[in-house]
Amino acid sequence: MLMSSGNDDNITMYGALGAFIIVIVPLYMWLTVRTNVKRDGKTRAGSCETIEMTKEKITRFDDKNSGKETISWSQLMTVYERGNCFYFYTSNEHGFIVEKKSIVEGDVETIRSFCKKLLTPNKKGKVPFKLVEIPFFI
User: Fold this and answer.
1) Which of 77, 81, 128, 136 is 20 to 30 Å from 89 at the Cα level?
2) pLDDT tens, residue by residue, 19-30
3) Contact 55, 114 (CB under 8 A)
């Protein structure tokens, strides 16, 4: 007569729990991002945002909300250049994107230069500016 030990039940339970977590965590993150993007899109609908970069600061102007936000270069956590955009992160969850084609005054090289010279180096002494290559198959 075959008898099942408690270990088989524990393995099954842990496997089901692991599978549940593997599915739910990414789904939760995706839904959170999607909800925030939709809400932000509704708030900014029809507005024009202007970003002005100088050696001292970055200023964002929003014509619809009459808002103005000033960020110093030291407040930026990381900047990525990927494809046709620059991604400026002020934290793990907040930041803004600058499309290269939307640059009116100055050029891409000026932004790269600002990032390399003005961003605060991390603990290892590296400047948190990264050029991310896009694979040819995307």
Assistant:
1) 136
2) 889 989 889 988
3) yes
**DSSP E strand stretches across 39-118:** 49-53, 57-62, 67-72, 78-82, 85-89, 95-99
Q: Which residues contact 82 (CB under 8 A, 6 or more apart)?
A: 131, 132, 134
Q: How far apart are CA 45 and CA 47, in angstroms?
A: 6
pLDDT band at 43 (very low <50, low <70, confident <90, very high): confident
Calculate ∠ Cα 112-117-119, nearest 5°: 90
Nearest Cα to Cα of residue 62 among 72, 51, 52, 49: 49
Q: Mean pLDDT over residues 71-84, rounded?
A: 93
**CA–CA separation, 94 vs 33, rounded Å?**
11
